[in-house]
Amino acid sequence: MLRNSAPLFLIMLFFVFTSCDPNRVYDVYKPVPNSWNKDSIVSFKIKPPDSTNAYNLFVNLRNTNAYKYNNLFLIVEMDFPHGKRIKDTLEYKMADPTGKLLGTGVTDTKENKLWYKENVVFKEKGEYVVKIQHAMRENGKVKGVENLEGITDVGFRIEKPVKQ
User: Fold this and answer.
1) Residues 6+ apart with CB under 8 A from 108
2) Domains in the chain: ranges and CATH
3) Nearest CA among 44, 37, 78 for reference residue 60
4) Is it the case that residue 2 has pLDDT exceeding 90?
């Protein structure tokens, strides 16, 4: 009987540690099949919880050792409920100077929590849409990377700022 309860205990322990995140408001990942095409846009429809509190926004990525670049360029666009649009081109460091991939994880898959915006107040009520697209180019080449290898999931996260 004791032998059969060990896997159940481990599963319950996993859920306790992964679901206890009091700062999380929105946290969704979408898979990227095989490779991330330069024309593929990952979209997230968000209904913020209120229009008075400030939140921190993040782009989350999961990547494998197949990711061969030291950095990552993304185009992140946020569409507001009443028609306003903000579009940013962002650069993130993905590897240290030795080429070792950054991020968390003990396997060859790493998770990266990348800052997008800080202390955002969703003043407009309604649905916001966040669109994320890669904008990678190789040095000395004009044409962008057609299919970006090594990115397995793209996510978007909204969280309450950590009180200090």
Assistant:
1) 64, 65
2) 24-159 (2.60.120)
3) 44
4) no
Tokens 């962002």 label which residue? 90
Residue owning tokens 């409920």: 81
- How far is residue 6 from each of residues 1, 11, 18, measured CA to CA in Å? 9, 9, 18
Statement: the pTM of the whole predicted model exceeds 0.70: yes
Indicate the pLDDT class of residue 147, thresholds 50, 70 and 90: very high
Phi, psi of 134 (to 5 degrees): -80, 150
Query: Phi and psi of 82, rounded to 5°?
Result: -100, 20
For 65-103, give the DSSP string.
TT---SEEEEEEEEE-TTS-EEEEEEEEE-B-TTSPBPS
What residues have CB less than 8 Å from 124, skipping those under 6 apart?
51, 80, 81, 82, 84
Where does residue 118 rank: exposed (0-12), middle (13-18), buried (19+ CB within 10 A)?
exposed
